[in-house]
Amino acid sequence: MVSPTKFVSSALTIAEMEARKIRHDSSELWMRAIQPALWLVVFGSALTELRSSQLTEGNFTYLQFMSAGIIAQSVLFVAILYGVRLIWERDMGMLTKLLSTPSPRASVVVGKTLASSVRGIFMAIVVLGLTLVLGINLRLDPLDVLGVFCVVILFAMAFTAFSMTLSAFLGTQSRMMAFGQALTMPLFFASNAIYPISLMPKWLQYVSEVNPLSYVVDAMRSMILTGVYSQVPFDIAAIGFFTVLMMVSASLVLRKLVQ
Fold this sequence. Notes:
The chain is mostly helical.
């Protein structure tokens, strides 16, 4: 049985090693920041003149409505392709060395997902910065922004662990890249990220109810737009459950990746 202190220490050590890679080479993150910028500047601006009753909920502009969804999208795209990096580490022999250390597999998963959440927070900061530049009026009180960051951390950890699980079964970078890219758009469009669930056909509404992205967007939208927090505890609980489920899954199959 590994002591909690050793577990936390191992996880933080791995997270620090992963975060150091970001500091040494942040070009990937800046390149990924182009996509949310295009969504806000091009897609959002093109539809912002639509009346709120057509495409949003409440008395908000479309750019206000979609901002939380673009944060979620940018974090999702970073996290869902983490398995590609993990397979590269396996091919280079780095993952085998890491798993041969006394560190528990679960602490490896926690450490790597924590480091991925740093990428997620960076993307959230980029999107929030873009909303300021574009003059999008959001609730950016410190506690609301902190709440968004907490949701981003959970969300990034969940989908990074999900990607790690997928990588153990897909096995190659090309398969992981193709599957990750194929999965992101259905998850994105089958959520409330860019239009209300009420506009969806009935069958898609049922899909959105089991889509974790819907709960992520709902929680962040409550914090930075509506200021209505009654649903937030349930949203956080749903995201937290999904995160724990994915972390356990990744811990169980991680060894399979190097066999």
